[in-house]
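<tokenise_the_fold>
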Amino acid sequence: MTEAHERKKQPEIVRRALLDCAAQISQEQGLPAVTLQAVADAAHVTKGGLLHHFPNKQALVQAVFHDLLEQLDTQIDELLEDDPDAHGRFTRAYIRAFANADSQGASNWNALPLSSLTDPEMKAMWSDWYASRLARHAETDAGPELGIARYAADGLWLAGLLEYSGVEATGQDALIEQLISMTRKT
């Protein structure tokens, strides 16, 4: 009996490996390097096995983007739990989540979020996620000063991605702390 016949099928584990490998390839080599064969090889599955989970590259990339949004959601929820001050809580969590991603080498937030600028479906996924989070936290995170802080955090993330922030790392930490202070009631 061959190894394929003896191996126990574990579709959730295979799907997770495919998502993780696609995200890693995107992070290390850019989105054009995310081919079905490259992801299948990295996950140690056949291309047919990959196609069982994702019918094409677009479906795979969108699933990775959705997975990254879920990871972001989880991280933000954890940060929300640790913050006792209700006013601006979501904005602080948002700022910290993106600052953490940047300090961890941009995590997986590089080519995929940038592709949401040109991919209508991923753009809609991001917009829907963002709108739902803002609606959920409307009582605590409405107002122009909190919006400005979130947009500034987006700018810092983008500058880090482009490897140009205009400030040293210690200066960036000070900018992040300034943004956090903007979220507090005065």
Observations:
- The longest helix spans residues 57-81.
- The mean pLDDT is 86.
- The CA atoms of residues 2 and 8 lie 12 Å apart.
- The two ends are 71 Å apart (CA to CA).
